[in-house]
């Protein structure tokens, strides 16, 4: 899929106008674009009355189901983020509900940590300073496979809305490190969504 063969993609959370005026938590919506701004996919959180209630009260701890759609509206992947009290987990599945992999958060007082898996096999870890915006995916030898970088989009938007941009670089950053497989790239996409929830939502704690 073109979504996963790019050397880099930009994931942009859509501005939630009810967040701006009322502080009302709406379903997450993202656009995924290539570096030239061409649309590759949408990531849409499932809506519904019960889910709306949980968004208001559980905030970033809530369960989230989302669908990754291509520009024609066809399902590419499904993302599931179960309810979490402390450490978050997020799973990504194919359109046929086959597990691709998952991302597990590891709580640390002064670090932002994740473990990334394809199936049951870990392929990368993230260990970023507490206020860091650059999340490097490192292999077992410490080589950088790629990274998720949170872009600053302007003071007013950062302050008043749940919006943000993430640049996912999915080619090896070092010549001695292998490139990521398509499955690993899909897990990296799910990781960006989890990072957005855990650290860059207005209600992240």
From TrEMBL:
Belongs to the phospholipid scramblase family. This is Phospholipid scramblase. SUPFAM superfamilies: Tubby C-terminal domain-like (SSF54518). Pfam families: Scramblase. GO terms for cellular component: plasma membrane. PANTHER family: PHOSPHOLIPID SCRAMBLASE, PHOSPHOLIPID SCRAMBLASE-RELATED. One of its GO terms (molecular function) is phospholipid scramblase activity.
């Amino acid at each position: 899929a073109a979504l996963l063969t790019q050397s880099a993609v930009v994931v942009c959370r859509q501005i939630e106008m009810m967040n701006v005026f009322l502080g009302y938590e709406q379903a997450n919506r993202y656009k995924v674009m290539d570096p030239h701004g061409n649309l590759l996919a949408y990531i849409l959180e499932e809506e519904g009355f019960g889910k709306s209630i949980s968004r208001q009260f559980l905030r970033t701890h809530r369960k989230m189901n989302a669908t990754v759609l291509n520009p024609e509206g066809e399902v590419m992947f499904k993302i599931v983020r179960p309810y979490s009290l402390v450490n978050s987990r997020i799973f990504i599945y194919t359109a046929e509900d086959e597990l691709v992999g998952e991302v597990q958060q590891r709580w640390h007082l002064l670090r932002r940590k994740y473990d990334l898996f394809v199936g049951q096999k870990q392929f990368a870890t993230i260990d970023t300073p507490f206020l860091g915006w650059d999340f490097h995916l490192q292999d077992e030898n410490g080589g950088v496979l790629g990274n998720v970088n949170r872009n600053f989009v302007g003071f007013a938007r950062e302050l008043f809305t749940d919006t943000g941009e993430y640049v996912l670089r999915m080619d090896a950053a070092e010549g001695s490190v292998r490139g990521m497989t398509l499955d690993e790239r899909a897990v990296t996409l799910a990781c960006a969504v989890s990072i957005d929830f855990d650290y860059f939502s207005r209600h992240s704690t």
